[in-house]
Amino acid sequence: MDEFLSVTGRKLDIIIKFAALKNQEIMTQSALDFIVPKTNATRARYKSGSKPSFGHFVEDYINGEVDIKGDFEDFIKARHGYFDFTLTPHHFKFFFSRFIPEVAIHSKAQDERIIRENLVQALPSLSGRLLHAETCLYTMTPDEHFVIDRHPEFPQVALAAGFSGHGFKFASVAGELLADLVTGSKSPYDLELFSIRRFAGHQ
Ligand SMILES: Cc1cc2nc3c(=O)[nH]c(=O)nc-3n(C[C@H](O)[C@H](O)[C@H](O)COP(=O)(O)OP(=O)(O)OC[C@H]3O[C@@H](n4cnc5c(N)ncnc54)[C@H](O)[C@@H]3O)c2cc1C
User: Fold this and answer.
1) Which residue puts its alpha carbon closest to atom 51 of ligand 1?
2) Residue percentage of the chain with pLDDT more than 90
3) Which of 111, 118, 138 to mutate to test the pocket of ligand 1 (most atoms within 8 A of CB)?
4) Distance of CA 9 to the CA centre of its chain
5) pTM score, two decimals?
6) How far apart are CA 197 and CA 157, in angstroms?
7) How far, in Å, is the centroid of ligand 1 from the Cα of 153?
8) How far is CA 140 from CA 111, 160, 165, 167, 203, in A?
9) What is the pLDDT of residues 82-100, one digit of tens each?
10) What span, in angstroms and rounded, lies between the C-alpha atoms of 24 and 19?
11) Alpha-carbon gap, residue 37 to 190, rounded angstroms
């Protein structure tokens, strides 16, 4: 029995020490390690050493007044260390009046407002009368790199696809690579990164 108590006690001691260490590690982090305030109000709210409200953070993020820097997963994992999760009536009001309509029930009118807010700052003369709005979709490959290769079963077919939202600026070089594939010329570039076979294991 004594031996059991001593082993259990040692285990508890280790767990307590580990928890204290974890806590110490968490407490040394500040919201500023993970987010970038963009206005004077948010700089004051997230100043080092304070434990800002998570509700306010969601609000500031939706209003474009703070940004998340670095890895999003790191930010989420460590959130209990530097945010206060106490909710106030103000947060509930914001949740129902802004968060739900803007995030869950997204509308074209909201898209237009968000785009206009940016146009007014960057290209004011483009923020005129809206003639037509359309949702644009693009194909994403699992690793977000292009596919520029010959068809695995029909080598006479060369293809360039899966530009994952950043193909426009590479149009000229993609054309050169395609021309080399079609004419059988040796490309000066290593096309392994764009190989269609790299997804062989993917569904
Ligand atoms: C919303 C959005 C934002 C983007 N932002 C960027 C960005 O900021 N930077 C960037 O570099 N890239 C961006 N891209 C990606 C870029 O636009 C594409 O990667 C690029 O246009 C792909 O070029 P493509 O020639 O392969 O295809 P496309 O440009 O789509 O050209 C294919 C053409 O084939 C035509 N076509 C289709 N079927 C047929 C048919 N049966 N007969 C005849 N013609 C046909 C289509 O009408 C079209 O003109 C964005 C894409 C979208 C949708």
Assistant:
1) 165
2) 36
3) 138
4) 44
5) 0.57
6) 15
7) 25
8) 22, 13, 7, 11, 14
9) 899 998 899 889 888 888 8
10) 9
11) 41
Q: How far is the CA of 107 from the centre of ligand 1 (A)?
A: 24
Give long-range contacts, CB 8 A cutoff, 24+ apart: 39-46. Answer: 39/65, 41/65, 42/66
Using DSSP bridges, classify how beta strands 66-68 and 35-37 pair: parallel, antiparallel or unpaired.
Answer: antiparallel
134, 140, 141, 166, best to mutate for ligand 1 pocket (most atoms within 8 Å of CB): 166
Q: Which of 27-31, 69-73, 167-171 has the highest mean pLDDT?
A: 167-171
* Domain boundaries defined on the chain: 11-101, 147-199
Q: What are the start-end ranges of the H helices in the chain?
A: 2-27, 40-45, 54-62, 72-77, 79-82, 89-94, 108-122, 171-183
At residue 195 the predicted structure's pLDDT band, cuts being 50, 70 and 90, is: very high
For the CA of 168, the closest atom of ligand 1 is: 11
Res. 173: pLDDT tops 90? yes
